[in-house]
């Protein structure tokens, strides 16, 4: 199973509407992605809490249709 990049971005933005998402296909297979997500929702939260917000936005597809996600998060500057 694979998940196209636009679908990942759409899910993240649905859960974090202000998110700026930069996505990179690491293996060229729509199955191994790196995402850099910037959102004001991350302010005051540690990295684990920030990542949990992104995973919650992706929902049950994380670990299923989306096999691997290398994730970095940041607050807006």
Quick recap:
Helix content is 30%, strand content 26%.
Task: Describe this entry's structure for a reader.
The protein is 30% helix and 26% strand. It is α+β, with helices and mostly antiparallel strands. The chain has a single domain (5-74), classed as BolA-like (GMP Synthetase, Chain A, domain 3). Helix 1 (5-15) packs across helix 2. The longest helix has 12 residues, at 47-58. The model has no long low-confidence stretch (mean pLDDT 93).
Kindly list the characteristics that best describe this protein.
77 residues; 3-stranded mixed sheet; alpha+beta
Q: Gyration radius, to the nearest Å?
A: 12 Å
Please give the alpha-carbon distance between the first and last residues.
Answer: 36 Å
Helix percentage range: 25-40%
Query: What is the H level of CATH, i.e. the homologous superfamily?
Result: BolA-like
Helix segment tally: 2
Low-confidence stretches: none
CATH architecture: 2-Layer Sandwich
Main beta-sheet annotation: 3 strands, mixed
Look at the structure and give the CATH class.
Alpha Beta
What is the H-and-E element order? HEEHE
Q: How many structural domains can be distinguished in the coordinates?
A: 1
Structural shape: globular
Topology:
Blueprint: H1 5-15, E1 20-25, E2 32-38, H2 47-58, E3 68-74
Parallel strand pairs: 2-3
Antiparallel strand pairs: 1-2
Helix pairs in contact: 1-2
